[in-house]
Design goal:
Aspartate Aminotransferase, domain 2, 11 helices, binds pyridoxal-5'-phosphate, alpha/beta, Aspartate Aminotransferase, domain 1, 5-stranded mixed sheet
Length: 354
Amino acid sequence: MSNWERNVRQVVPYTPGEQPQEQNIIKLNTNENPYPPAPAVQEALQNLSPDALRKYPDPAAGKLVKALAERCQVDPAQVFVGVGSDDVLAMAFQTFFNSEKPVLFPDITYSFYDVWADAFRIPYQKIPLTDTFEICADDYQIPNGGIIFPNPNAPTGIAMAPESVERILQANPDVVVIVDEAYVDFGAETVLPLVEKYENLLVVQTYSKSRSMAGARIGFAVGSKKLISYLQAFKYSFNSYTMSDAAIALGTAALADEAYFQETCRKIVETREAAKKRFAELGFSFGDSRANFIFVTHAHVPAKQIFTALRARHIYVRYFDKPRIDNYLRITIGTPEEMEALYAALEEILQAEV
Ligand SMILES: *Cc1c(COP(=O)(O)O)cnc(C)c1O
C-alpha cells in the first residue's frame, strides 16, 4: 500500500439490485412500483420550465415541505426532505449517531445501515431477528447510541405493531430512534402520530416505492422541530442544494392526487395477497409481508438455483448471499400479468427438479 493510501477512507459500498439495460425483461428485483406516477406528476413534468434548471433551487424545498406537512398533519418545521430517503437516512446517521455506544439495528435488514455506519465510523451492534424473522422490542433495551429499523422490515416484509415500536421508544428516551417506513403504505401502520409524543423519534418515508417515483429521488423525514432543526443544520453545513426544483415540483404534484395513490397501493396489496396463495401452492414458505415484495424460501429447491434459472428467463428477483437468508428470494410485487409470467416460469423450474 502506498503511503498516501493510508489516509484514504476505504469503504465497502452498498450493492444495489441490478438495473439491466435490456428490454423486455420482468424486473422484480428492486421493489420499484410497476404502475406509473400519478397523472398530476405527468402534467407537472410537461410544465417544467428550463428556468428551473438555470437557477439554483430553493434550498429549503419550501413548496414540497409545506405540501408534506399538510399531508402528515404536522408543522412544516417538522419536515425534512432529501434526495431519496437514502440521502435523508445518511444525514440522520451523521447527525444523530455520535455516541461511543453502538447503534442498534436488526441482523437482517436494509443493507445500507451497516454500510453507512462503517463509512461514518459509527459503532453498531446487530440484534438478531427471532427464528420467524421478527423484530423483538425487548431486545432493544440494552445500552446504545441510537436505534434504527425499517417497519415493515426489509427484506422480510414483516411489520411491527405501533405498540411494539412505542415499547422501544419508551425504553430509549436518551437516544434518537429512527423508523424507516419505506414500505408502510402497503398495509402497515405508520408511527407518524407518535412524533408529537416522542421528541427523539424520526420517521422516514420515500416516494420511491408507493408513489412510483424512484427515479425522482425524493425522501423525507418527520419529527420534532428540534430534531428537524439539527438535521437542517447538518445539511446546510455541506450541501444546501440537495433537491432540484424539478424534483420539488414533481414531488409536490404527486401529493395532489390522493385517490390515484390509494388506488395504486390497493392494487399492489391485492396482487400481493393473491401471490401468497400462489407461492404457497408452489411449495414456498414466507412471512406475512406488508410490503410490496415477498421474501420466500422453497422446501426443496435452493434459492440461488431458482434465482439463476429465473434470470436465464429474463425474470429478475433479488438474492442475498448472506448468513441466515442465503436460501431466500425477495420478489417484488409486479402487475398481475408480470406475476403470472413469474408463476409459469417457477412451475417449469420447479418441475424440472422433481
Ligand atoms: C428503498 C429503501 C430505502 C431508500 O429508498 P430511496 O429510493 O433512497 O428513497 C430506504 N429504506 C429501505 C428499507 C428501503 O427499502
